[in-house]
Records
---
Amino acid sequence: MLQLKNVSKTFNPGTINAKTALRGLNLTLNDGDFVTVIGGNGAGKSTMLNAIAGVFEVDSGSITIDGADITRRSEHKRAKYIGRVFQDPMMGTAPTMTIEENLALAARRGSRRTLAWGIKKSERAEFRERLESLGLGLEDRMTTRAGLLSGGQRQALTLLMASLVKPRLLLLDEHTAALDPATAERVLELSDQIVEEGRLTTLMVTHNMRDAIEHGNRLIMMNEGQIILDISGEEKRRLTVDTLLAKFSRAAGTELVTDRVLIGA
């Protein structure tokens, strides 16, 4: 479903501020994989997601989604393939539009736009049903502006929007990092629910080692723009924070001392 071949990216090349973020990165995701991504600050996690989403062009290598080479396609042309939830709950919704209007926009992702605008009765019924499945009472607030929702409610709505039209790939970019622990846990539960029900191929970047271990069927760890660990199956099910830290030290030749990761552990 997703293949990255020898992807490299250097920011500000040829200057004193040059920073190589991805170094010949290779990654393949099979249909239905739910892969969690962990690593220290500057490891290349979010850069990898931005490269996949088309936020910038890569210097070399190729990116393929479901057999289509999207390496040189613009960000908006990739939108029909990709659903994304960002760290900031404010980024995934239009705050001045109502919940149902946001969902209507999401339902039209990848479709040909016309001058006609309106929400059909059948759409409204579907939106209500999908909102009800979140268990947050949002189905009774469909005409409420998204900007009036709490951070957790907005992330739940963004999750629903990102998966309303089944994407070939769902990107979750530290999407619980800005939430309090209880809300973050609920949003992760909803993420699992939505991914499982839709059989969505998913990449979830997280700074929390426990979350990386407990969610998904596969875990990769990045360091200096490369994947140094790729763990799945029974090995992943047996993982603990301590064994993961030990594996990182052996693979990278150094200890993982990133504050955010250790706090999240």
---
Amino acid sequence: MREISCETISRAVAGMISTAAFELPSDVLEALAEARRREVSENGRLLLGRIEENARLARECRLPLCQDTGTAVFFVEVGAGLRIVGGLLTDAINDGVREGYGRAFLRKSICHPFTRANTGDNTPAIIHFIPVAGDRLHMTYLAKGGGAENKSAVRMLKPSDGKRGVIEAVLDIVGSAGASPCPPVVTGVGIGGNLERAAWLAKYALRRPLNRHNPDAELAGMEAEILERINRLGIGPLGLGGSTSCLGVHIELESCHIASLPLAVNLNCHSDRRGEVEL
């Protein structure tokens, strides 16, 4: 059985956090550049250029892409043939969050829901464990800002609503969010499961790079239609009008109960901060 130490995991987590805070993934930069070329509004092109300039300055000056450095969310694939030594995997990840946010001088945003007392180190992280075959440990990190996360939604649709109902509900959720999630957004859509599983699927969908198509042809077609229709809403970059309101739509689907059609939408802002490492 292969072994990985908690210290190795913590170092990897801290590295992902400090990189993601300052550097947008290449697929996001490419999507922003393409959006600026296609944008019909002069003001929209100007704002997209400012977003790209912000990304350049953040990378070169090692300054956070956004003052909201987010909740630390992890999807962790754990191989059945892997043994964590030196402690618990959850503790190792949280130690990495503590180190990464501290070392990079990132804002700590996690607090008690009622007293609003800050935990002081951006822990606890939100960690989703996924058992897999083999002996690998694969971690994906999302820095989820509050503005976009607050505009996410779950709707329990009727089975008769079908695909058309899902598409219209997604458009309504994104349209109602307007400027609040700092568009152009990335839209994660979870269909099926149950209430909590749909929300999980919507967030899991945000792991996929913007330049990677859905392998399911039907879902890829839905993604393309929703993206095109969101961009016709006229919200525009930073909510100030234009033809670029969304950079990408990613759908994940699972089976559900015969009496249900759960739908969830989880949004990321244009600062689509992600990290990925395999140990």
---
Amino acid sequence: MLPIKIIGTGVYAPGEAIGNSELKKLANIDFDHDKTEAKLGIFMRHIAHLRGINETTADFATKAAENAIANAGISPSEIGLFIVGTDTPEYITPATSILVQGRIQKGEKWTSTFDVCASCASFTIALDNAVSIMTTDETINYAVVIGVYNMPAFVRPGDAFGYSIFADGAGAFVLQRINDGKSGYISGQLLTDGTQWDYIGVYAGGTRNPVTLELIKEHRQGLLNLQPLPGDRNVRLWPMVVNKLLSKAEVSINDVNHFIFTQINKSVILKVMDELGQPVEKTSFIMDRYGYTGSGCIPMAFHHAVMEGKVKRGDMVVTMASGAGLAVGSNLFVY
């Protein structure tokens, strides 16, 4: 077990939550909210621009990080590494993590920053990278890893699918390099299939498709669902990756106290827990109050699991995230 411990967590979501009925009016859309609630488990979400709130990715990330730092009880000046996991960055460049560092540390510091852009698996991959860096660089005693999502900024007007599912939010961990013999990081397991790049994503704004008036007129900007995702993808993937992770770490699945999954579909999580032979009490759901917050949902769900007493010090936890591309990340640690 590597001596990297989670010592603080924090979340942030902008404005008052928006229920399904109010969402239809604010976004001028229609969708089957009964199906959304029954299958996906989504009842509420936070969307900054629908509330008239002038906040975007860097604002969400900074506020979640500040909450986690306060929860950890350390000074911002002590942090040696900021990593932001997101596929909805503030800008193409500079990295969102650089903005967050500047807002929190107020200037030039001996601090490392970078972003991880691996769709909805960004946070889990960022966490795995943070542990590796802290393990090899003894000058970094504290790190902040943030998962943040602002996909509603890319949802086009009238897109009922996009607005009914995607939401704004961020979660953050503060990590400390400390060998207390009780808490630490055990292992991570990643998986990628780049042949699936053209399923769903934001394909405008990069070098291949710069944003032009012609592109906007053709409605090729923002979030695009180019082809349907395989219906059983996560039900197949998640148990496979979890079992690979546990086999790699030589840990029995029954020794895991809690599982945190990508919060996009409650019915899928229930199926996966059944496939793993684990009781539903060993997992958490936050899509009912936050909608789907992509790269932010893993740290947000973990934060609430800790605050609600579902995860306690000494518990072994698995996080499991997957997203477009295809990118998959998982972590195993003792809280």
